[in-house]
Amino acid sequence: MEFSDITAFLPILLKGALITVQITIGALLLSTLLGLLLALMKLSPVRALSLTAGTFINVVRGLPIIVQLFYIYFVLPELGIQLSAFQASIIGLGVAYSAYQAENFRAGIEAIEAGQIEAARSIGMKSKLIMRRVVLPQAIRIALPPYGNTAVMILKDSSLASTITVAEMTRAGQLIAASTFQNTTVYTLVALLYLCLSLPLIFGVNRLERYFGKSAKGGNS
């Protein structure tokens, strides 16, 4: 691994890393919004809503993410829905991980003690207000550690966007390696850049888990 190779390859890989970050942020936002909606639907007393959400979650979790990306990018255009590879990667990852986010949020909501909800009702709060002011703030706090883990998983799985020609970091590395045959240098740099992106997230998740673990112990003592 020569320094001249590193300085030549790194700017191209950093451009790919920027696209990787954009895909991760876009997919994380989409999965969060859709996941919260699915969680509320699954917990709804309306059977049609809970059944629809449950079916969607099971189907999405049962399909490989790469198949979902292929379907969105290659099949939807045949149905008249044109998406760029970048858009398809965000939607594909966002939809795929919304199923996992939904389970994170559902578990957080169900962890709220029934006594708190009854107390809120006793002072005249309506169901929507209870959800907004009592349940969701606590549920989101409980769901934060697994939410952080999901963010790390989305970051790593953003590399799958390379399969639909998105010029993110993995794709950039493939193109450089194919033209220079410097596989060791290129993929070592790619691995190090992924670590640079993921390690802060991992450390942040670990800190959240320790913090909320201490909070739970303090609340139970």
Class from helix and strand fractions: mainly alpha
Shape: flat
Secondary structure tally: strands: 0
CATH superfamily: MetI-like
The number of helices is 8
Spatial gap, N to C terminus: 56 Å
| Strand proportion | under 5%
As for the CATH topology, it is MetI-like fold
Order of helices and strands: HHHHHHHH
Mean pLDDT: 88
Oligomeric state? single chain
CATH class: Mainly Alpha
GO biological process, one term: amino acid transport
Subcellular location: Cell inner membrane; Cell membrane
Domain ABC transmembrane type-1: 17-205
Family: Belongs to the binding-protein-dependent transport system permease family. HisMQ subfamily.
What this model shows, in words?
By secondary structure, the chain is an all-alpha fold. The protein has a single domain, classed as MetI-like (MetI-like fold, Orthogonal Bundle), CATH 1.10.3720. Helix content is 83%, strand content 0%. The protein contains eight helices and no strands. Helix 1 packs antiparallel against helix 7 and helix 1 runs parallel beside helix 8. GO terms for molecular function: transmembrane transporter activity. Keywords: Amino-acid transport, Cell membrane, Membrane, Transmembrane, Transmembrane helix, Transport. One of its GO terms (cellular component) is ATP-binding cassette (ABC) transporter complex.
